[in-house]
Design brief:
heterodimer, A: mainly beta, seven-stranded mixed β-sheet, four-stranded antiparallel β-sheet, B: mainly beta, 11 strands, globular
Amino acid sequence: DAMVIQNPRYQVTQFGKPVTLSCSQTLNHNVMYWYQQKSSQAPKLLFHYYDKDFNNEADTPDNFQSRRPNTSFCFLDIRSPGLGDAAMYLCATSRENLYQETQYFGPGTRLLVL
Amino acid sequence: AQSVTQLGSHVSVSEGALVLLRCNYSSSVPPYLFWYVQYPNQGLQLLLKYTTGATLVKGINGFEAEFKKSETSFHLTKPSAHMSDAAEYFCATNFGNEKLTFGTGTRLTIIP
């Protein structure tokens, strides 16, 4: 089945220690998104790629970076995680960058910062 | 600012009873509207969406929603709740751009 895969499902890191979360997709979609979701809150868009074009949200901290080496993979790098970065990180894809397109979500990676 | 509002952060219904989750939007242009469901420790899954055309939209798992322009609403319903429906439900819209704006979510609890 075509899907969005996130690894690992749970990640523990130390305060200030860089961490990378990964996302892969077999849907061959052009757009990939990263969301941050804190407990009992709605997902918050951090950035997205349309093909190789990177689009950062204005309020995304510089501490968060992303890479998309090819169509299938996208990475979220947190350079110096703080306690406030503990959250669920969701990757999503859509076929095109159009208003009515459905976004397909992965299962998420829950990040714990010690 | 354009937004979606979900009334009721927690809703409890008895198994077999009607499920009604409310979503209202504020927009000066016709929006595209979505309902997503999130099970514990999982990603979001699309239940249904309204883009154009028929205002009554049927989705997966027996859910449906009706777009009512006069009431600026897109409420989600299911005639008979099942225990497996217990989850968080998010209404979302993109108001004419590619970015989804989510409501604050409604946690649905099913009472046996």
